Structure formats: C-alpha cells, structure tokens
Amino acid sequence: MDESCLRLFIALTLPDDIRATLEKVLSASASMPDKVKWVEPNNLHLTLKFLGNVPKFAVNKICSVIDVVISSRKKFVYELQGLGCFPNLARPRVLFAGASQGMEQLKSIAQDFEDQLVALGFEKENRDFKPHITLGRFKHGHGKTSVSNQLLTFIGNNKSTYFGSFTVSNITLVQSILKADGPLYTPLYTQHLK
After folding, report:
1. pLDDT digit string, tens, across residues 21-35
2. Catalytic site residue 45?
3. Is the full-model pTM beyond 0.85?
4. Domains plus CATH for the chain?
C-alpha cells in the first residue's frame, strides 16, 4: 500500500463484556471442521462504513464528517442476538452475530455516512446496510463453500440466542494495518453521542 494512504473504516467498537461473550461463541465454533478465518476477539467490531485506502490528508475531513453525523445523536441501546451467515447458509461467506435492538439507529447513522462521504469522493455502497458483527469468513476452496452439519446445528441452535446489550455511546474511525497474522486495528478518532 502507498505510504501516503491509510486503510480506514468507521466502526462501532464493542465493550469488553460483549467481546468476552462473543469470544465464547468463537471458541465453541473454532473447533468445528469448517474452513473459517475467525476474527480475533480484540478485533470484533461493527463496521458502519469501510473507506479503503485513504490519503492521509483526507483524515481530518473524514473526522469532520463523523462530527456532523454523530455529535447531535443520542445514545441508544444495541442488543446482539442470533447467529447467521451472509449471503445465506447455502453459500456462506461470513458468519455473524446479529441484532434485535438498535438496528434502525445504526442504519440511519450508516446512511448519513454514505450521504456525507459522497462529497469527499467516496462511492455509495450498493447493498442495504445490515448491522452485524463478523465472527468469521469462510475460506473458499475451488469457488464453493459448504457448511458442516456440526456448524449448521450450532448456527441453528443459536439463531435467536441473546448475546447481550450495551449503550452505543461513541463511533470510531479505525486504521487497519494488514499483517501476515491478521489485521492490526488502531483507533484514530472517536466522536461521542449525547
């Protein structure tokens, strides 16, 4: 990557107790025979907008957009519930923890980021925003991936499991440095909700 650029995303970071709960889910699913690249517990987050490689000079402008979108919003509760796969169990690419509360607020925030960041030259996402926390990405062998019966059962048994809730009080701009042993995430800027 060009040294004048940073790989960035805007995220909702997770409190330690929620990370600990999701770490138990990761531990239980990691023993299954499926080829999955599991997210390190310290890297668990909810991406609101992936920005990609961004010139360093644009970081302050992105922080200003975060201020505009977030500073007038009130705190709200986000509730994690259920496991699922994108796009579906027949062709899984991502295993995720879903939500049962706070989705509409996050969708609104994500849409505001989409709208505001266009002015800075970022492309709008074509897909609808679906709040989730990625737990793992399936490794594709020969273009096809299937899910073991063991993991299917695990997902089915946890499709409505409650994983906890927390108050969303801030949004963070995060730098992602790709390394051989996995990404290193560094918070660059945080804006607090009212």
Report:
1. 999 999 998 888 888
2. yes
3. yes
4. 5-172 (3.90.1140.10)
